[in-house]
Amino acid sequence: MARSSQPARDQIVAAAERLFAERGIEGPTLREIGAAAGQRNNSAVQYHFGDRLGLLTAVLRPHLDSLDAQRAELLHEARARGSVGLADLVEVAVRPLAAKLGDPSGVRYLQIQAALLATDRAGPMAPGLAEAWRRPTMLALVDEMADVLEPLGPTEGEARRLLAVTMLFNGLANFASAHPDGAEQERAAYE
Q: Model-level pTM?
């Protein structure tokens, strides 16, 4: 009977998440990630994920899936209350991210996304960030924010959305790094 490769994949993803958060997306080599995951085969990461982008996608996907589900629920609740304003949309965007402060894996996710935002225009990891924006709930949020910000014009509205997202990820990631014991308290303040 063939053994499952899922435990090895899970160990690699956990090691990659930790190392990407600590050293940046381009910091650790794939061999270092494999070794940190306890893999003796130097090509284990490539075997399971193909390349760095495949591994990054595997690291981000569970977070993106849970964030999308939480945002969908919050957006549904906001719509059920009536007219959805900018404050409602910001809450839908921010609250699930702030909840990540209460989980070490969530903090690492915030740090990785902050790093991706820093390399979005020039770096090869931009598709990892784009993955977050292609989620159904994020698309709905962006569309609704665009409607609210439409009087600003498309360029200024887009600039404000990008600035807000950058500040959000960087702020939460920096807070978590500076206050490892206080991240749970900060998360509770957002709920």
A: 0.76
